[in-house]
Amino acid sequence: MKTLFVSYRVTDLDRSLGFYTALGYAELGRVDVGDAARLVILKFPGEPAASLELVHRPGDGPVDVGSGFDHLAIQVEALATTLETLTEAGLEPEPVQYPGGPHGPKTSWLTDPDGYRIELVEWPSGHPDGITAADFS
């Protein structure tokens, strides 16, 4: 088994698409699912398949993120360059943090229009993509 994608319900589809395309996602396609509801499937250009689905159900009212979902983590190659690009696109990433100390990953956070938190992660040179068992040994 493997994880296919994460799905977010969004309040304003156009605003959310603007945010996620500024973040670097590209739209793969849309599916109308009835009652004015629509799914929009996104991926990053370097990904082989979809990684994010936006679900717009206007009849359900505004999104309430609540306390059950924490965040989405996205790996970036060069955090400083990414933050500059995002800021130029009108997004507001937070300052760089070093949660693992000076030799650990660099991170920054931003929040989408519905309040979903996104962590941007730049791994140290030589670190494999993602968190592995080696990170706990």
Automatic annotation (TrEMBL):
<dbReference type="GO" id="GO:0019243">
    <property type="term" value="P:methylglyoxal catabolic process to D-lactate via S-lactoyl-glutathione"/>
</dbReference>
<dbReference type="InterPro" id="IPR004360">
    <property type="entry name" value="Glyas_Fos-R_dOase_dom"/>
</dbReference>
<dbReference type="GO" id="GO:0004462">
    <property type="term" value="F:lactoylglutathione lyase activity"/>
</dbReference>
<protein>
    <recommendedName>
        <fullName>Aldoketomutase</fullName>
    </recommendedName>
</protein>
<feature type="domain" description="VOC">
    <location>
        <begin position="2"/>
        <end position="123"/>
    </location>
</feature>
<dbReference type="Pfam" id="PF00903">
    <property type="entry name" value="Glyoxalase"/>
</dbReference>
<dbReference type="InterPro" id="IPR029068">
    <property type="entry name" value="Glyas_Bleomycin-R_OHBP_Dase"/>
</dbReference>
<dbReference type="InterPro" id="IPR037523">
    <property type="entry name" value="VOC_core"/>
</dbReference>
<dbReference type="GO" id="GO:0005737">
    <property type="term" value="C:cytoplasm"/>
</dbReference>
